[in-house]
């Protein structure tokens, strides 16, 4: 994890790497991990337009109600 709270799951989601996402989650990566600002891997996938990554996260029970610290979905 980086000092910002970004995890490998966030990074894989932001790059649309669904195979990597699946491997990370199978190894215990947290689908609902949050950065210091409350940004989740699902936010990262959606923000960068990676629909397949978002679907992968949703299939793993990503929290669709999660909000960033700024009070809105990023």
UniProtKB/TrEMBL annotation:
Q: Which domain of life is it from?
A: Eukaryota
Keywords, ordered alphabetically:
ANK repeat, Repeat
Q: Which InterPro entries match?
A: Ankyrin_rpt, Ankyrin_rpt-contain_sf
Can you say where the ANK repeats lie in this chain?
A: 4-36, 37-69
Supply the PROSITE patterns for this chain.
ANK_REP_REGION, ANK_REPEAT
Q: What is this protein called?
A: SFRICE_041668
The protein's organism comes out as Spodoptera frugiperda
């Amino acid at each position: 994890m980086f000092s910002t709270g970004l995890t490998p799951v966030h990074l894989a989601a932001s790059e649309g790497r669904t195979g990597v996402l699946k491997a990370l989650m199978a190894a215990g990566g947290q689908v609902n991990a949050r950065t210091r600002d409350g940004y989740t891997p699902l936010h990262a996938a959606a923000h960068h337009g990676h629909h397949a990554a978002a679907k992968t996260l949703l299939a793993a029970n990503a929290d669709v109600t999660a909000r960033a610290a700024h009070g809105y979905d990023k």
